[in-house]
Design a protein that fits this description.
Shape: globular
Structural class: alpha+beta
Strand content: 25-35%
Order of helices and strands: EHEHEE
Oligomer: single chain
Low-confidence stretches: none
Number of strands: 4
Largest sheet: 4 strands, mixed
Radius of gyration: 11 Å
Helix content: 25-40%
Strand order of the largest sheet: 1-2-4-3
Distance between the termini: 12 Å
């Protein structure tokens, strides 16, 4: 399991997330991403990116008032 904190990137987290999803990971390894949600549009964009990169979205939930967490697996 690997955790990636993308909150410092604000609304521009997608390029880094795509880069991470493009890296080699162990078979069935779980990846956890944290990012800021702002107006909630990043949630759908992150789900679309996960699917585009060939991963399965396992969980998506609000972590606190401004942060969102998604869990994915290849």
């Amino acid at each position: 399991m690997k955790r990636y904190d993308l909150r410092k990137l604000g609304n521009d987290f997608e390029p880094r997330m795509k880069e991470i999803l493009g890296e080699k990971h162990k078979e069935n390894e779980t990846l956890i991403f944290l990012f800021e949600i702002g107006d909630f549009t990043p949630i759908q964009r992150s789900a679309d990116l996960v699917k585009e990169c060939g991963y399965e979205l396992y969980n998506s939930l609000k972590f606190n008032e401004v942060d969102w967490t998604i869990v994915v697996k290849k």
